Amino acid sequence: MGCTPSDGSQLLNKLQAQNQTWPHQADLDIQEVGCPWICSQPCALAFSATDKATYLFTNVPAAEAEALLQFGALYLNSQNGDIPWKQFPEALKSTEVAKIPAV
Questions:
Q1: CA 93, CA 2: separation in Å to the nearest integer?
Q2: DSSP state letter for 33
Q3: pTM score
Q4: pLDDT tens series, the chain, 103 aa
Q5: CA separation, residue 39 to residues 7, 15, 59 (Å)
Q6: 4-34 b/e with 16+ CB inside 10 Å = b?
Q7: Which end of the chain is less crowded, N or C, counting CB atoms within 10 A of the terminal residue's CB?
Q8: How many Cα atoms within 13 Å fall on the side-chain side of residue 76?
Q9: 2: which residues sit within 8 A by CB, 6+ positions away?
Q10: Which residues pair with 100 in a beta bridge?
Q11: d(Cα 8, Cα 23) in Å, to the nearest integer?
């Protein structure tokens, strides 16, 4: 009996594959990290950079790698990480998101 990858693993694999042809590939580091203590929330991920707000997304469907890369482009192009809600990719508006101010 074979095991199927978790939703988080599927999303990571899709992000890594799509990142190979993404114009901002060299500007965004996609990496797996240990459990951020939100085990009941599948597919958690964060966008974080020095002197920018951090965004933590949870309950991201494994099929939304493209929407995450779209958000990544907005984040990279922002001066301080502030992304207006109306600019979020539509697929991410149904996820749970926290914005943490830069410290």
A1: 34
A2: -
A3: 0.81
A4: 454 557 778 888 888 888 888 888 888 777 776 666 656 656 778 888 889 999 988 888 888 889 999 999 999 999 999 999 999 999 999 888 999 998 8
A5: 12, 20, 11
A6: eeeebebbbebbeeebeebeeeeebebeeee
A7: N
A8: 14
A9: none
A10: 54
A11: 24
Structure tokens that stand for 9 in this block? 């693993």
Give residue for tokens 């590939």. 25
Residues of 61-93 as b/e, b for ≥16 C-beta within 10 angstroms? bbebbebbbbbbebbeeeeebebeeeebeebbe
pLDDT number for residue 83: 96
E strands in 1-103: 45-47, 54-58, 96-100
